[in-house]
Amino acid sequence: MRFRIYLAALALCGWALPGGARTDLGLFRQATNAAISLPLGQGLDLIHGAEPLGKGRFRLRLSNRTHAVVIPELGRGSAYTGLYGFAYGLRPELDLSLLVPFMMDSVGGLNKYGTGDPVLGVKWARPKTLPARSYSSINLLLGFPLGFKGETGIDKFDGGVRPYSSQALDLGLQVQMDLHFRYASLLINGGIFRSGNPQILPQLVYGLGVESSRRHRRLRLNAEYQSRVAFSRQTQAAGVLKAGARVEILRGVELELNREFGFFDYPFNSALTFGLRVHGMATGRRRLESRYALYQPVAKAKPAYRPKKVTRLAVVDFAGFEEYQAGKRLVEKIRTRLEPHDSLVVVDLGRYADIPKPGVFSAEQAAELGRKLGVDAVVTGSISNYRIDRFAGRQVPYVFETPQTKVDVALRYRVLSFAGADPSRVETFTQEAGGQARIGERPRLLPSDKRNITISASAVELEAAQEAALDDLARQVLAGMAAKFPWIPPEFLP
After folding, report:
1. Which residues contact 211 (CB under 8 A, 6 or more apart)?
2. 483 touches 491 (CB < 8 A)
3. What is the pLDDT confidence band of residue 418, given thresholds at 50, 70 and 90?
4. End-to-end CA gap in the chain
5. pTM of the model as a whole
6. For residue 35, what are the CA distances in angstroms to 114, 146, 200?
7. Which of 425, 403, 408 minimizes the C-alpha distance to 416?
8. DSSP-based three-state secondary structure for 245
9. Rounded CA separation 494/23 (Å)
10. Which of 49, 183, 347, 437 has its CA 20 to 30 A from that of 278?
């Protein structure tokens, strides 16, 4: 039912409003910088996405738009533009794209058609992992003067409809950033575009886009605004506002519809554009696949756990910050997590006398303790950080503040294992792990003082944050041990 409501709303927005009501032929005839092109990798209809495609993934895009034009000597006609592009992920962080426009003008029985200037794009993004909460990228766009430059009969009347080529090399350097939240994504673009044609002024192009329902299997809605400001000998500005949606009609094939509205020196006041996007894999098992499936997190395969014997483990109280009893509390949390596994027995050191003081043991000390207790592994270490920051939030005095309490803990630990095939051989593993917990309060606007201690976390909340930080630290310690030793269950891997 919700899907049908979305489609009905899209139909009302896309078809009920009048489109193509005005075309400023004087602006339409001006040569444009071909590098200002639509995104071929991730992105909306105008706003490029910083997220990379990923190695081996490709995207094919077809976009179509038609505008009504009027030449007084010939009458009414139309100007059609088809944009056909392909993008491919060369590396996890590197995308390569190629866009080839096809143009056709028809007025009063006279026709002109040909290709526009092709655009080559190279995008480098960080991070290269998919998916992630945020991305940033640099996009280099090159428009080559290979479009149709000939003249036909339609060009003899009032200068024709429009040029198909800028007749010079066009350059664009764009910086992009994405922020992905649970229900929406924010896309930000900004760049400089220059052309070798002196009639095309340098332009600053920036824009903002919002995409909702990004995780929906079938439908995605979006809105975007792009502004183009020319500067040099004279200024010129154009703005475009778009709203649209993409609907998956087949696996890996999306139909996109967009409504655009032009402002300032934009040639059109409104228009409807439509097209297709095709997603897929070009390496391995070549196939078309939906965008939803391509960018799902890949679950890490965990090795099968088949212990051959019961491993006895001794965890010595960690040294450091004894005033918080941090070492004893952390040992208890590790013991609690290992207790349900029958293949592991955590020895209770409180039942034995002459146990060495807490801290990091040498190999000789650990071997001596192992012989006394008859254990297969010994874990020792010291807590290197236990920091409680009650005023960790951001603050602009007397303007706003975001109260937050943060607890950071860290542990340097050593595992000495005697559980190998050779009892005389000691396997040593030294590592450092950290844990963190945060407690946030509602933001405060126009606070009356620089720092108000009455809004920080209470004693109960502070104690809960410390326990959460130690829980996080225990998880990190067991994850590091599970990656190293086969006798730790793989379920502790991250």
Report:
1. 44, 184, 185, 187, 220, 221, 222
2. no
3. confident
4. 38
5. 0.62
6. 18, 13, 12
7. 425
8. strand
9. 57
10. 183
